[in-house]
Amino acid sequence: MSKRILVIGAGFAGMWSALGAARLLDQAGRTDVEVVLIAPEPELHVRPRLYEHNPEGMKASLQDIFQATGVAFIQGLVEHIDVTNQQVNIAGTGLDTSRRSISYDRLVLAAGSRLNCPPIPGLAEHAFNVDQIADAAKLETHIHGLASRAESAGRNTVVVAGAGFTGIETAAEMPARLREVLGQDAAVRVIMIERNTDVGPDLGAGPRPVITQALAELGVTWKLGSGAAGIDAKGVTLENGEYIEADTVIWTAGARASKLTAQIPAQRDNFGRLHVDRNLKVNGLDTVYATGDCAYAATDEDGNYAMMSCQHAMNLGRSAGHNVAADLIGEEPIPYSQPQYVTCLDLGPWGAVYTEGWDRQVKLAGAEAKALKTKINTEWIYPPSGDRAEVFALADPSRIVVA
Q: Among 251, 286, 308, which residue terminates a domain?
């Protein structure tokens, strides 16, 4: 009787989980175990690039890779996970309104994360974001439409709520994007607002001088110590009572793990991520693994934990895939380990900044770092070709990708 590994999600972690499992099964000569991946589309959405131009082009088909490696794909949206009976309920997408259930012997939850949107008045109605392709496309359409509006301070102003990684990358793009639409001589304003007292509070002090220099030279300003209290069609009210007139408010303040993690009866962190062991099995459960943005996973023995980023998601996926297959067929697991940590932050036309280590020591800045960031964004994080041998070589969990 055949067995089934079920992977939920086709993001960086989900894709590599399925390929990592298929790789080990192929090496072991096991044809009695199938790897099945469920997602709304057989596509990898290149989410780290959605602050750039043309977000609707930021996706890559996975059909050839799945066919080459024997991964079965089910198009649908997982609505419910029944851990006790080891099955999930799936709803169709688009015109497909059907529902079905599928059982599993082992489950890998790789459903990613979503932008955290707290109940701030007007946030849902009036703010834009770059969290998903449709969201980023909506923002791009809006920006192009600003040229048809009467000139005003609000029309020419973008407020970016959140001065973290995504907020900085988005803000750095905005002055040039606005001038492309409104004219090179337009008096544009791009303002970041941040509740913390520093720009890039989670990035630490190391790269901050480079970041603030770049933003200042691009014409981006910031207001610290007060977040958004309310948003309307004409601007944003800060927690300190200040009102900023702006036709464009972009929300970037944090992410939370997929809501599916709440259906798993196990411990979660403040971001909704499931606590896992070094093999990425959910603590206290024998048949469920979590990976990518759904996993609270130690990267080393020094107390560091994976960030919600594609850098960690790719390696978490490889490890989860290998280990879930190893668990099912009685092979040795390879504990997840990713002691090397880097950041490469895009700073728009100014360049980028590249750091190494958890203390984020700056190694490259400006044009040289931008060249590295471009290679990461356009080559390293994309799926491999459909060549089976190449895919399985890249799915090896001992291959640690630092990008």
A: 251
- The CA dihedral of 175, 177, 178, 180, to the nearest 10 degrees, is 120
CA 47 vs CA 38, 56, 136, 387: distances in Å: 18, 11, 10, 24
The closest of 145, 164, 152, 121 to 246, measured between CA atoms, is 152
d(CA 235, CA 376): 35
* Cα torsion 137, 138, 139, 142: sign: positive
Residue 402 has pLDDT above 80, yes or no: no
What's the one-letter identity of residue 88? V
Largest separation between any pair of C-alpha atoms in the chain: 70
220-224, strands of its sheet edge to edge = 220-224, 189-194, 157-161, 248-251
Element (H, E) at 104: none
Mean pLDDT over each residue of the chain, to the nearest integer: 96
- Beta strands of 76-214 (E only): which ranges? 77-82, 87-91, 99-103, 106-109, 113-115, 157-161, 189-194
pTM across the whole model: 0.96
State yes or no: pLDDT of 1 exceeds 80: no
Q: What is the pLDDT of residues 110-120, one digit of tens each?
A: 999 999 999 99
Shared domain check, 221 and 166: yes
162: left (phi > 0), else alpha (psi -120 to 50), else beta? left
Q: What is the DSSP string of 182-208?
A: H-TT---EEEEEESSSSSSTTT-SSSH
User: Looking at the domain assignment, is residue 105 inside a domain?
Assistant: yes
Residue 21: what pLDDT?
98
Q: Does a structural domain hold residue 60?
A: yes
Phi (first) and psi of residue 49, to 5 degrees: -105, 5
